[in-house]
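Support case: user asked for a sample of complex input and structure output to validate their parser. Sending the pair below.
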Amino acid sequence: TRTPVNVTVTGAAGQIGYALLFRIASGHLLGPDVPVNLRLLEIPQGLKAAEGTAMELDDCAFPLLRNIEITDDPDVGFAGANVALLVGARPRTKGMERGDLLSANGGIFKPQGKAINDNAADDIKVLVVGNPANTNALIAQAAAPDVPAERFTAMTRLDHNRAISQLAAKTGAAVSDIKKLTIWGNHSATQYPDIFHAEIAGKNAAELVNDEAWLADTFIPTVAKRGAAIIEARGASSAASAANAAIDHVHTWVNGTAAGDWTSMGIPSDGSYGVPEGIISSFPVTTENGTYKIVQGLDINDFSRARIDASVQELVEERDAVRGLGLI
Ligand code: NAX
């Protein structure tokens, strides 16, 4: 029997947490033969609801779920963590300036980064879901100097999955026939979903679509503004799809990408494709044996270049802002 993997989820009492925990406990995060211990990290106001969720987890009698710990102390929550899903964040409220938003989140992600640094297992893998996800990941990473920087990642898998779904709808293809789609840049309205290297049943997707106006005026804004459209329709932000994407992100990171395909992850840039080193930006990546590599050598046309640069510029500004606030 395998040693259980310790999985920490912050914001466990929130709506993404509720959609996420049951799938982790049933084996979808790491695999059908990997037992897990869950650590639920909440703020004091969230502890009671987290206890309720833990009662329901107990009631599922999941064969893979060994134990659940609930805490509001990051040092306890990240003790021995192998995987950390940082979901809890401070949302933007009406009239809040970007600086206020970044400093409120700095107050969450800086101490959590330090707690990860001091308490997590050596093989810790971190996924930041809470927005602004890329810059929150940068703040946590900067506070964890003893953890290799590449273990801090931000979620753009929901954007990736949304883009695949939109492309499938446009072309009538099956979702499973679409490969090599890329989200570049920030998980924000400036993100760039790129189909120029994507394949649909082995054929180039951009050539099949052959409609740059659709790309610029429909596809890209639909993917980038999908979160707002969900709020408009559902009266609440994406939760099950966000949880599903978090599961996909970690599952792919741990278990590898399929041959002939890649995925999108927000990761510390090594300078590839002209993205300034150190910022956490989304790239096309392949994964193998728990590590990822940026797909190299892709031709970037002018259409893509302008959009990648714009999103990266936003990330540079966010980095400079948190630097100015002393958060990194
Ligand atoms: P909820 O407001 O339902 O839940 C957030 C939970 O986090 C609450 O229970 C709160 O008590 C807890 N929390 C707050 N500060 C905490 C701290 N310091 N430590 C531990 N827990 C803390 O939000 P939910 O809908 O679950 O969304 C969570 C985050 O995901 C938000 O920041 C949201 O913007 C972000 N999203 C990111 C997406 C992505 O693709 N990267 C998509 C979905 C989602 O919008």
